[in-house]
Amino acid sequence: SGLLTRLQTSAPTIQTLSSNSFSQNIPSCLWKLGRLNHVAIAVPDLEKAQSLYKDVLGAQVSETVALPEHGVYTVFVELENTKLELLHPLGEKSPIASFLQKNKTGGMHHICIEVDDIKAAMTELKKKKIRILSEEPKIGAHGKPVIFLHPKDCHGVLVELEQA
Predict the structure, then answer these.
(1) Residues in domain VOC (predicted)?
(2) Cα separation of 61 and 97, whole Å?
């Protein structure tokens, strides 16, 4: 019983965080960050990647869609709580082509988070010195306006914001 007593008294206390702990430090914004829309994965072989998710893992997988204005082919893998976006280069100037030159086997390219007001988000993020990779939103794979935030301003992650 002496060991148990020592363990109980020397065990570190764990502080739990309530949802109020997070919201107290968040400044009010004119726009609201929403749910995770998708995680994008650059793939060197789109057919093999589609087959992995559809035939091996049993996921619902979309048809391939070309997005020439973004220089990519996209395929969406439906998950219960979000989607995966498989990206493959479309054209030699594709940002995915340069990504795959550095990452031969592919890998996570970006995350996409929904926002309720993309224009307000752009204005406020610029004021906060977050670089946006385009002057105006472009229409993304879901037919909605999107912007990308510079990864150096987002701890190494390319962040896409999509109008909800």
Answers:
(1) 35-164
(2) 22
The residue to which tokens 């789109």 are assigned = 46
CB atoms within 10 A of CB 14: 5
What does the block give as tokens for 86?
Answer: 């498989």
Residues 6+ apart with CB under 8 A from 151: 157, 158, 159
DSSP 20-83: HHHHTTPPP-SS-EEEEEEEEEE-S-HHHHHHIIIIIS--EEPPPEEETTTTEEEEEEE-SS-E
Q: What is residue 153's DSSP assignment?
A: G
pLDDT tens readout for residues 13-72: 555 555 555 555 666 778 999 999 999 999 999 999 999 999 999 999 999 999 998 999
